[in-house]
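so my prof wants the structure for this chain in the tokens format not the other one, which i didnt know existed until like an hour ago. anyway here's the sequence
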Amino acid sequence: MSSLLSLQGVHTHIGAYHILHGVDLEVPAGELTMLLGRNGAGKTTTLRTIMGLWPASKGRIDFDGRAIGGAGVKASTPDIACSGIAYVPESMGIFADLTVRENLLLAARGARSIEQIDTQRLDWLFTMFPAIKKFWLYPAGKLSGGQKQMLAIARALVEPRRLLLIDEPSKGLAPAMVRNMVAALRELKATQTTVLLVEQNFMVARELGDGVAVMDNGSVVHAGRMAELAQDDEMQQRLLGLSLASHQ
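here's what i got, hopefully its the right format
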């Protein structure tokens, strides 16, 4: 399949620290690609570099055939977002003092009022994330951790996006909320939305991933199909230091 997002030899420095060491990554259009690796491997830095929050010092990042990052490329984070990429950080980044409704409205750049947001799209979000509708007028800060994560993803999808970057959506959630999150992301997959998902929960990775890239020490050390990795205990041990079977 053709790649919607492509990273070629991407390096990222943060101050005196050299974090990414020549990352090569392909994200096929219409698929959910898992980005796995041990803590500190460079996964979050990769997402932030794609968004231009930390500029790549070397290499190239292409989105739909156009350079959006890399040496000599000046695309800003707002420009990258406007090209059709949404980012859900690990911190979720919701506005705690605003209501759920107000959080979604802020993310809808083309709307000045909630009435200007496409009704069918809101109904679609309510179907995927029922808590969003239930707590529509609640301050977002009073939601549970799982509900906040649902809001963060719904906010990224309130307008059509071509690519969604999500950083560890199941982190810190109770098992029941993880199941709800997986169900919602499965619904999202059915829409052919292209997703790059960082995850530490390997059951989530196995259930959702089409493709997979594994990072170690700031570079991609393996890329392939998630189903193949899920069936190969030796490869899991070698690349990740543990087995998916131990998370059943």
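also thought this was worth mentioning. The longest strand covers residues 3-14.
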